[in-house]
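Regression report. Comparing outputs from two consecutive submissions.

Submission 1:
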Amino acid sequence: MAQVNFLAVLVAAASAFFLGGLWYSSALFGKIWAREAGVSYDQPKKGHGAIVFAVSFLFSVIAATVFALFLGRNPALNTAVRDGLAIGACWVATSFGINYQFANRTFKLFLIDAGYHVAQFTLYGVILGLWH
């Protein structure tokens, strides 16, 4: 764990929240996601409680920490970005794909949710690769 830059990990984890806010906004995929998920985007939002955000941030910290451990000390930027893209696309997205098949979720919903995690891990790679 001594090889992990925890400040970089916290910034990477926080970046997932900013990315998610944009990704699931009406400017990008929010309305399509809502339609595909069977929820109304235009209904007044009840909002998520603090526990949802706290647990989500904890999961992001765990993911970014383990990814930093996977990358090792001072990874080259191109390696970190390539590995983030590969992990997001080949491990996370395919895992979502398995679940979405059995849950009979739409391919559009899969692309939106899996795409977010591909972008998330690629962004983790950029942050961890730049921050030595």
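Submission 2:
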Amino acid sequence: MVLKFVQENSTWGYDRIQGALANGGYHITDTTVGNILKANGIEPAPDRQRSMSWSAFLKAHWDVIAAIDFTTVEVWTKGGLTTFYLLFAMELNTRRVHFVGCATNPKQAWMKQATRELTACGDGFLNGRRFVIMDRDTTFCESFRSLLEDAGVEPVRLPPRSPNLNAYIERFLGSLRSESLDRMILFGENALRNAVREFLPHYHAERNHQGLANELIEPREFTGATEGEIQTRERLGGLLKYYHRSAA
């Protein structure tokens, strides 16, 4: 029980653990608690807080963390095959995703404008978020990070070559590519933007997510209905399908 308590509550000290044990009928001294922790190589609370694990950090700040990342797509344009950079942001607790925009060369001015839109009063996607996770891509320049900080959002830069630490948005980007973009030949920026616009409502309201107990992010009024004919909604020429009951 001592190990369970300290693993689930990284800030608890010896006395707090002793008290929690007493609530369950286990009466031992705080010295015994300390000895158990030392025997298992677990540091006292102050040291544990300084070395909080990444998973513990995410759980402790779940409701106020966002993630941001790019993916690239090859698009046929008048100038030939062109690489577009697509920027997305995600609320980790809801998995809701926002398409920030796309550009062939997202320089500093483009990134600064993206930050202003993300943190705009009233409808900015990052409103209410305290942290935003990002990798060390040089596109996330100093001015971009400074504007986030000015809006009260702290950039959390990940160590080099650590995509698993930003796994939630990486998983979304993988789904976007494998389920739509990689299965299409895109002609022009408008076709690319349309594909993204079609995928996002499917992702939010028509695609079940294993990480959310196989539920929809934004279920509709008739989701789960047991009456009515089963119908199919198709997007992107049938690449994306959603099966639902017709409204009564």
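Expected: both submissions complete independently.
Actual: both completed, but the second showed a warning that disappeared on reload.
Relevant detail on submission 2: The radius of gyration is 23 Å.
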